[in-house]
Write a structure and sequence with these properties.
Layout: H1 2-23, H2 25-34, H3 40-45, E1 53-55, E2 58-59, H4 61-68, E3 85-87, E4 94-96, E5 103-116, E6 128-144, E7 147-156, E8 165-174, E9 184-190, E10 211-213, E11 220-223, E12 235-236, E13 238-239, E14 272-279, E15 286-296, E16 304-317, E17 321-341, E18 346-348, E19 353-366, E20 369-380, E21 396-398, E22 400-411, E23 416-426, E24 428-432, E25 450-462, E26 465-474, H5 491-494, E27 495-506
Parallel strand pairs: 12-24
Antiparallel strand pairs: 1-2, 3-4, 5-6, 5-27, 6-7, 7-8, 8-9, 9-14, 10-11, 13-17, 14-15, 15-16, 16-17, 17-18, 17-19, 19-20, 20-22, 21-24, 22-23, 23-25, 25-26, 26-27
Length: about 500
């Protein structure tokens, strides 16, 4: 009876919410069409959005080549003065488009309802209207031949305590340095995985952020995020450091101290500061990318560290299909501090650990199908605690972790798309603070796996506007935290489902 009541309520809610979401944008959509508002690159080149996108925001092969070439049409160096304004004089002036040709806005809004096995503070099971959820303002284009720029300002209301307009991705791009397609350099803050076959950005199922406190250890995770789990750190018990090793310390109290096992990290972080070079020097089918990322070590006194990565992608283009396969390797020295908490505060290991990540991805597009997936593995050094027992010396750790994310999207018509995604995370990191034989309160492994199944239906009244309904279901059975940590429902299994309806538009 209880189950039937829940589904009756869910169907009723779905009908009401979907009607609301489909109704809210009507006036807005009308105004967009009247203004002939389409994304800036489509305006600039007088093309439909679908020239570069399978369906917004996913890029097709032509759109990927457009991005590779510094947001210039493939095979061109669009930096000339044609249809641009000349700034700074005829001799050494720069050129700039009309503002509508290099400025664009992306708006996402949601109505969400999640279901939990166990109620937790800060998470309501009532419908949550997040309108708007995220607003992105993009400035991108060419200032001179083969010199491009990209700036993205984001206003995010998913976390009211941190909602603000900030610059996220921001970069300068120097294209075709050696010969056409041979070398493009990006400098600034960007997504290192942008050229990977399963990139962190441009997801049909936009990420839903976690509800968590990362200024304490262990972190208080009230709700895990909803995103491709292959991207996540997958490691329990790691921090960004700043603690002296070998003794109990007070909580740092700074957000971001604890590394969430469910957050995108390293090569798959949404934004990293660094430099990368990519091109097709080995032929038209093989794309290379090498780069470095500037971060801070997890030592007691943090020092600048330089992570490095390499990525290769091989493309096979057919008449009605495209196949590509990618592989990457990312290495980070002194990237994290293993940490335990025996009740008197977090205790750091003797030394930081290096963190290595590698992955494989593939994408196949054939007519109405777009199928893509990735396998990503993480390894850390074996943590060492010389403080003995109970100061971390009895803790047990798993140094390997892995994740899989696979998605398939199908275009029923030019306006309707259906999709499904499967995510699985095999967790690593801290298993137990000490063996159960020594302390009965450590009666459960901390590093629990996670897996989610997601379904989406999306309707495009225009190529740059998507209205969607999506459902996420947790495939894991109920698991409790160790009694030493309260014995509540484990965060990996507490969220049983989430239903979301919303709008995603770019203009």
């Amino acid at each position: 009876m209880k189950k039937a009541t829940f589904w009756q309520k869910a169907r009723c809610l779905a009908s009401s919410v979907l009607l609301a979401v489909l109704t809210i944008p009507i006036l807005f959509i009308t105004s967009v069409k009247e203004a002939e508002a389409v994304p800036s690159f489509a305006r600039k080149y007088d093309m439909s959005c679908n020239v570069c996108h399978t369906r917004q925001p996913r890029l097709n092969p032509y759109g990927q080549r457009f991005m590779e070439n510094g947001y210039q049409l493939p095979g061109t160096a669009d930096g000339g003065r044609k249809e641009k304004h000349l700034l700074g004089g005829e001799t050494n002036g720069a050129t700039l488009d009309e503002i509508s040709n290099y400025m664009a806005i992306r708006l996402r809004a949601d109505i969400q309802q999640g279901s939990l096995r166990e109620k937790v503070d800060g998470v309501s099971e009532d419908p949550d209207i997040i309108f708007p959820r995220t607003v992105n303002i993009f400035f991108a284009g060419t200032a001179k031949k083969d010199i491009s720029f990209f700036f993205e300002a984001e206003y995010d209301t998913q976390d009211p305590a941190e909602s603000a307009m900030i610059f996220e991705r921001s970069m300068l791009i120097f294209d075709n340095l050696f010969a056409p397609n041979n070398g493009t350099v990006k400098i600034g803050q960007f997504d290192p995985s942008a050229l990977y076959s399963f990139p962190t950005h441009r997801q049909q199922l936009n990420p839903i952020k976690p509800i968590a406190e990362t200024g304490t250890f262990p972190p208080e995770i009230n709700r895990i995020p909803v995103l491709p789990l292959a991207f996540s750190s997958k490691m329990f018990g790691l921090t960004t450091g700043g603690l002296a090793s070998g003794a109990a310390n007070s909580q740092p109290g700074e957000e971001g101290f604890a590394i969430l096992p469910f957050e995108p990290y390293l090569f798959n972080a949404p934004v990293q500061k660094g430099v990368s070079v990519h091109g097709r020097v080995f032929g038209n089918s093989l794309l290379y990318q090498v780069g470095v990322v500037q971060k801070m070590t997890a030592e007691e006194t943090p020092q600048t560290r330089w992570d490095s990565y390499v990525m290769l992608r091989y493309d096979v283009q057919g008449a009605f299909s495209n196949f590509q396969v990618s592989g990457f390797y990312y290495t980070a020295s002194k990237a994290a501090m293993p940490t335990v908490n025996m009740g008197s505060g977090p205790i750091a290991a003797d030394e930081t650990v290096d963190w290595n990540r590698y992955g494989l991805a593939a994408r196949w597009q054939h007519k109405a199908w777009d199928i893509y997936g990735t396998y990503i593995a993480d390894t850390i050094d074996k943590p060492v605690f010389s403080g003995g027992m109970p100061l971390g010396g009895a803790s047990t750790w798993e140094t390997d972790a892995s994740g899989i994310s696979v998605e398939a999207d199908y275009l029923l018509t030019d306006k309707w798309m259906l999709g499904a995604r499967y995510d699985q995370m095999k967790a690593g990191g801290l298993i137990r603070g000490m063996p159960q034989a020594m302390n009965a309160a450590w009666d459960q492994d901390l590093n629990q796996d996670a897996s989610l199944l997601a379904l989406i239906g999306k309707y495009y009244p225009a190529p740059n506007i998507g209205l969607y309904a999506r459902y996420h279901h947790n495939l894991e059975s109920s698991v409790k935290l160790p009694s030493a940590m309260g014995g509540d429902e484990h965060p990996a299994t507490n969220l049983t489902s989430m239903f979301i309806v919303g709008v995603d538009m770019a203009f």
